[in-house]
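hey can u run this one w/ NAP bound, need the structure tokens asap thx
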Amino acid sequence: MRVLVTGGSGFVGQRLCQQLVAQGHEVQVVSRSPHKVRECLPSGCDIRDSAQAFIESPPDALINLAGESIAAKRWSNEQKEKLVDSRVAATQQLVALCEQLNANGQPLPKVLVSASAMGYYGDQGKRVVTEETAPNDEFAHQLCKHWEAATQPIEAMGVRVAIVRIGLVLEAGGGSLQKMLPPFKLGLGGRFGSGEQFMPWIHRDDLVAAILFLIDQESLSGAFNGSAPHPVTNAIFTKTLAKQLNRPAIFPVPAFVLKAGLGEMSQLLLTGADMRPARLEAAGFTFQYPTLDKALAAIL
Ligand SMILES: NC(=O)c1ccc[n+]([C@@H]2O[C@H](COP(=O)([O-])OP(=O)(O)OC[C@H]3O[C@@H](n4cnc5c(N)ncnc54)[C@H](OP(=O)(O)O)[C@@H]3O)[C@@H](O)[C@H]2O)c1
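ok here u go:
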């Protein structure tokens, strides 16, 4: 199969592209800087600077991961616009590719798997959250709502669309864990605020497997929560990580410190949702790393 990936150079995308190549697929990557990212992708990946650059070799499947990093900078109004616009623009490139293919009478891809995030649900307190749960309207929800809605023109062309609302992706060498590990290794880790907020998480290999599962399963479409079946609170996450590292975690960071330091972005650390992968499990997907203990033991 020929698979086009936006954001293939990222933390999730790199592992996904390795898996796709290992399974014998032909991989096309859209990157803003094809030359720079070549060395982090498997040889044989065709890397170009726009989706439309692949018009002569139409993909069978699309995977949409690109977007400005959510935790890179404080959420100024300008940064919030960049977070939304980068994701909508990457998705619109896929819309433009499909429209062009349609206009040329070339075959359309069979499926689009498009990333979204747990932020879709916003702050949900202690409530169990499935794909059916109504969102809390806040910036994270608006971001994901616009991102997801940008896929609609592709669905309207008859392409199957699956959206993955991704939890915190865990693996060594990137993502949030890379930022958390140094203080925890020094014994300086601790919970954020009350620690009662939920942190849905997923091992990167399970996320990649779930994306490939959604590509394969022709009957599946709509939104899927992409997180492990056993989410934990921030306090439990902190304890589990400290235990795996054999270090204490006795330095909680008070909520007011995070709010003062990070502004609105502190919501990423202080609020959450007890998100469950109800639809993936109902579809028969099995997680290799269902519990945090198992995932962290493998990673660390
Ligand atoms: N990692 C997580 O814990 C997590 C959790 C929930 C949701 N997600 C979502 O899942 C997707 C993949 O996650 P990830 O961790 O692999 O992300 P990542 O490492 O930040 O990579 C995303 C890719 O998007 C491209 N990109 C970055 N800034 C961009 C911009 N301003 N405009 C257009 N493209 C840009 C980059 O590719 P080029 O430089 O090659 O263009 C980058 O490699 C992201 O959209 C993320 O929001 C991730």
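The longest helix spans residues 77-104. anyway lmk if its weird
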